[in-house]
Amino acid sequence: MFTITTTAHQAEDLSFLLHKHPARVQVFELKFGKVHIFYPEVNETRCTAAMLLEVDPIALARRHRGGGGGTLGTYVNDRPYVASSFLSVAISQVFGTALAGHCKDLPDRVDEAMPFEVNIAVLPCRGGETVLRRLFEPLGYQVEATPYALDNQFPQWGASRYFTVNLRITCSLQLLLSHLYVLVPVLDDEKHYYVGEDEVRKLLRRGERWLPSHPERDLITERYLKYQRSLVREALARLQEDAVAPDATAERYAAAEEALEAPVRLNALRLEAVLEALKQCSARRVLDLGCGEGKLLVMLMKDAYFERLVGMDVSAQALENAAKRLRLDSHPIRRERVSLLHGALTYRDDRLYGYDAATLVEVIEHLDAPRLRALERVVFEYARPGCVIVTTPNREYNARFESLPAGNFRHPDHRFEWGRSEFRTWAEYVATQFGYAVRFVPIGEADEALGPPTQMAVFEQLHD
Ligand code: SAH
Questions:
Q1: Rounded alpha-carbon distances, angstroms, from residue 334 to 287, 297, 308, 326, 329
Q2: Which residues line ligand 1 (CB under 6 A)?
């Protein structure tokens, strides 16, 4: 059994979004048993929908006939009592319209981010609470898990893999259902049906909006596709395409941008300015977000002032190149001081807590507006380092690059390039929003009218 509660205004609209009448108990017959839908509470401020799965072990055993033979395990197992891939089937069959993001009666509320609380009575988690958190927290969930002992009579036997799980998030109902649809069977790590090509399609469709940049993308894909190598390879290749421009192209673009800026030594000046700003903020433990191939990390590593350095990027290829540049393989001791994380800056990530500073060097302009909004929260609200340093091109200066056609960006993957006032407006908004002070530092030789080639903002957390 699981419940979905919302406390959004006019909370009872949840019943319209789920297309299930709030005053009735409804029963749906599926192949593996029955699904009951009912609402334990419905009012303007709070509405809860419950889904109770009544898995029929006898029907299941019959469907398996001719398979593994009739061992006791086919009749006596945990399936009737836990959330598993049956729950995904039930979501897609009983809440199919909501999962597809349609609602005729309330089209305006379909995409609304609402506060939700999900309670899953018994969720088997292979890998325990750590994996549970690693799957849900990067998506923005607050996770509470109550573990169960294998047997209360014999505490020495340790913990079971079963948890009662409470999840809280603010997002659209469709997104919430798509998370549960994919992640519940991934945690269970068992599927009651054959996994074929069709499952790749389902995974990509359900995970479309969040899986490409989920830090546990590989684990999710492997488990979802039951470790079938060719399917996993195919799915990961498609997810990688969605996450970033293909790496070879990305490298070519980066090289072109560097060539453009080389005459003004921008790259070196930028890194020196960042290093200087880090020291002014007394930052010894530094996160380099969107570290790319690790140019800044290499420079900081050579300076004993910095005690701990962590680079994070969404591109696995860029991280591999960074590891080579940093020679992490041949210098094992270095790994205690410098490490690299694969992850997306648009998802909340516990691994980013506890640093003095975070740098975003030529990164923000690679994110479109909704992703930039997400990054702002991930960095300034959740990771919340004492200091954040952001650099980005000054678009006004582009007129000085003779080889750059007017109106073009310096890098084809840039989603925007800002002039000085646009950057200032954004940075001041972020500072106010999240409780930081901000100052601006020009980088490179400034043109009198157009300003410097690169602009930098240094945010320092205000203490209350
Ligand atoms: N800071 C580096 C790289 C800048 S290029 C340097 O100055 O050389 C931008 C980098 O941001 C790329 O490596 C890209 O993979 C990374 N990036 C883009 N979007 C990201 C996201 N959502 N999460 C994490 N990294 C991202």
A1: 16, 12, 10, 9, 9
A2: 213, 244, 290-292, 295, 313-315, 318, 344-346, 361-363, 366-367
CATH of the domain at 445: 3.40.50.150
CA atoms within 13 A on the CB side of 432: 6
User: To test ligand 1's pocket by mutation, which of 351, 366, 379 has the most ligand atoms within 8 angstroms of CB?
Assistant: 366
Single pTM value for the model: 0.54
Task: Report the pLDDT averaged over residues 180-184.
Answer: 94
* Structural domain includes residue 228: no
- Our count of domains for the chain comes to 2
- Domain containing 392 equals 265-461
DSSP of 121-167: EEEE-TTHHHHHHHHHGGGT-EEEEEEEES-TT-GGG-EEEEEEEEE
Answer with the one of 168, 193, 218 that is the final residue of a domain: 193
What Å distances lie between residue 238 and 212, 242, 290, 313, 341, CA to CA?
A: 9, 7, 21, 18, 21
Q: What is the pLDDT of residue 174?
A: 92
Residue 101 has pLDDT above 80, yes or no: yes
204 domain-assigned:
no
* Ligand 1 atom 3: residue of nearest CA: 292
